[in-house]
Amino acid sequence: MTNNADDTQEEKDFRSKYAHELQKKKMQSYANWHFGLDEISDELARVKHQAMITPGRRGEQIKYEEINKEILRRISIGHPVKQDK
Fold it and tell me: What's the domain of life for this entry (predicted)?
């Protein structure tokens, strides 16, 4: 994974727009996500396939990173970390 601080302005804009689009996509609950396809996993499959066809493209790298961030964000919302008091 690359450091977002090294992104050009164009890459930052693309990353921001793509992250916003991912937030609109539907995802089945974490417990059942592997039993059926949803928009997030469909997008991940498309990005992985395109990355195999044209390896090294920055757009696919950014998309892959943002999809992973969105999945982790949704998991953390569904299962908040307990804090010790």
Answer: Archaea
1 within domain boundaries: no
The C-alpha atoms of residue 33 and residue 67 are separated, in whole angstroms, by 14
Please tell me which residue, 56 or 10, carries the higher pLDDT value. 10
- Token representation of residue 14: 């693309």
Q: Which is more confidently placed, 26 or 30? A: 26
Q: Does residue 4 sit within a domain?
A: no
CB 40 within 8 A of CB 70: yes
Model's pTM, two decimal places? 0.69
- Among 28, 25, 20, 68, smallest CA distance to 44 is for 68
> What is the phi/psi pair of residue 18, to 5°?
-70, -40
